[in-house]
Amino acid sequence: MKPINVGLLGIGTVGGGTFNVLARNREEISRRAGRDIRISMVADKDVERARKIVGDAATVVGDGRAVVESPDIDIVIELIGGYTVAKDFVLRAIANGKHVVTANKAMLATHGNEIFAAAQAKGVIVAFEAAVCGGIPIIKALREGLTANRIEWIAGIVNGTSNFILTEMRDKGLAFDAVLKEAQARGYAEADPTFDIEGVDAAHKTTILSALAFGIPMQFTKAYTEGITKLTQDDIKYAEQLGYRIKLLGITKRTAEGIELRVHPTLIPTRRLIANVEGVMNAVLVKGDAVGQTMYYGAGAGAEPTASAVVADLVDVARTLTTDPGNRVPHLAFQPDQLASVAILPMEQVITSYYLRMRVLDRPGALADITRILADRSISIGAMIQREPGEGEDQVDIIMLTHQTREKNVNDAMVRIEALPVVTGKVTRIRLEELAAR
């Protein structure tokens, strides 16, 4: 049978890993796919470096247009990243009747609706397992393995850089800035780490997971996004004392009022498995009505873990090349004409629990004033720590964990508390999720 010819756009870390995995496991992969899969064309701006990687195994060009326009290419792998050039190449490949495999979560979260519509119209596949959590097959689990379920919620550690930073802050007692520099030195964080530490990368991935879980279009612009830059050693320490750990979570939930889509630091009980996911590892919890809670854990980035997902997509495409487009697994798990227009909830309408830390003058009645404000807004306290002032100090930290309440109530309470004469500075608020199996 004629081999499948693949064109690769970008042979950086993941592209190089994909080329190596496909070459090393070629026989095993062809046995699974039913035919040989080979990268026969590579496009990269650094032509000389690309030639050193591929040798004589593939034609190397400096312009991606040569790949997407080539009549000999069956599948295009897009690994150049970004929003614009990548999108243009992908849409052109689709227009030319080529299937696409991509690891580009930013492109899909932002332009996925347009890309999937184009692919549907042309009868080609856009596969994107590597776009979320590297080598963890979470996309396939949602699209196929959990098809019988009505998904209730997803909560995931989907950014390894932020997880590494939080792990090091807790284990070594270091400040955020110091750990960020270490992450950059190890290659875990980019020179500009904004997407990782401000939660944007996690929001891209959570947007994709939300669309797959609930059968809704990509709606990245409606995702609430909050990063880890304001977290302090005090908050990490107090969370531990209360039996919790802080993780940057991507959370999406189905509620009676709409879909929650949010990324932010979150307190999780230490007894939960996901609270013990450390370093650069990723993990995703999925709660389905039939299966209950399932967890997917593994390397969320890196050359070969991500290449594992890219090659798996190649095999999936190869297996379905002769399948009628109407009988293929839909891009977003649900049939394209069955996507729902469910509203994404604004953050102030979300209901969850909260960690509140405030710096208070050591005065009689200070705690009563604070609890009165909370009670007036129907916010009940589940646990509290009040430190004794040190010698010569006249201020103390008060830390409260609330029961579930609506975010807008907490927002209002924080404004009122900060206005009290006995409260110095801003109230620190971190959301809390129990992530119980029930």
Task: Report what the structure shows.
It is a single chain. The protein is an alpha/beta fold and 438 residues long. The protein has three domains: 4-135 and 303-338, NAD(P)-binding Rossmann-like Domain (Rossmann fold); 145-299, Dihydrodipicolinate Reductase, domain 2, CATH 3.30.360.10; 353-432, Alpha-Beta Plaits (2-Layer Sandwich), CATH 3.30.70. Helix content is 37%, strand content 26%. The protein has helices spanning 13-24, 26-33, 47-54, 65-69, 85-95, 105-122, 138-145, 160-172, 176-185, 194-197, 200-214, 233-241, 303-320, 366-376, 407-418, and strands at 4-9, 37-43, 59-61, 75-78, 99-102, 126-127, 151-157, 224-225, 244-255, 258-269, 281-288, 292-299, 351-361, 381-386, 395-402, 405-406, 423-432. Strands 7, 8, 9, 10, 11, 12, 13, 14, 15, 16 and 17 form an eleven-stranded mixed beta sheet that branches. Strands 3-2-1-4-5-6 form a six-stranded parallel beta sheet, sandwiched between helices. β11 and β12 form a beta hairpin. The chain starts with a strand and ends in a 6-residue tail after the last strand.
